[in-house]
Amino acid sequence: MLNFYGQASKQGVQLSWLTSNEMNNAYFEIERSYDGSEYFAIGKVKAAINNNGLNTYSFTDTALSIANNTPVYYRLVIVDLSGNETISNAIEVSPLVNTITTYPNPFTDQTTIVLNLNDQQSPVFIYINDIAGNLVQRLQVTSNVSKISVGEGLQNGVYLVQVNTDGSTYHFKIIKQ
Fold first, then answer.
1. Strand, helix or coil at 25?
2. CATH code assigned to 3-93
3. CATH no. for 99-176
4. Residue 78 in contact with residue 86, Cβ under 8 Å?
C-alpha cells in the first residue's frame, strides 16, 4: 500500500488508499477504533486481485459523525486469496472544528469576521446587537463566504454578535472605539 488517508465531513469519514502491484489480494477490511488500540470491522472493499498498476480505493464511514471533538482511528486489514492477513498502519482522523474569529477587536472603523466552517451548506446569519439587546445589524452570507467586514455605521460601544450556522450558534463581543 502506497498511501492511506481519511477526511472528516458531516456525512461521515471518507477513507482513501492507493496500492500498486497487488498480488492475490482478495479484499480490504476497514477497521475503526476510538482509542487507537481496540479495532472492530466496519466494512469491506473488494481488491483488484492481481494488478501491476496503481489502484485507488475508497470507503465512506457513514455510520460515524466525528463532530464531537474526538479523533477516530482507522486501519486496513489486507486479506489475500489464501486468507492471510496484513494489517496496515493506523491513521488518525481529526474531528471537524469550526472557528470564528474577528480582527481587529477593538476596532475604530470596521472589523472583519473570519468564518472557518467545515461543510457549511446553507446561508450563515450574523446578528449584531447593542449592549441593551437591540438588533442593530442583520447579515446573511452564503456558505462559501469566509470573511465579512462589519461595524461601519455603528456608534462607539460594545456589541454582542451571534452567528448562526448549520446546527450551531456562536456568540462573541466586538468593541467599537
1. strand
2. 2.60.40.10
3. 2.60.40.1930
4. yes
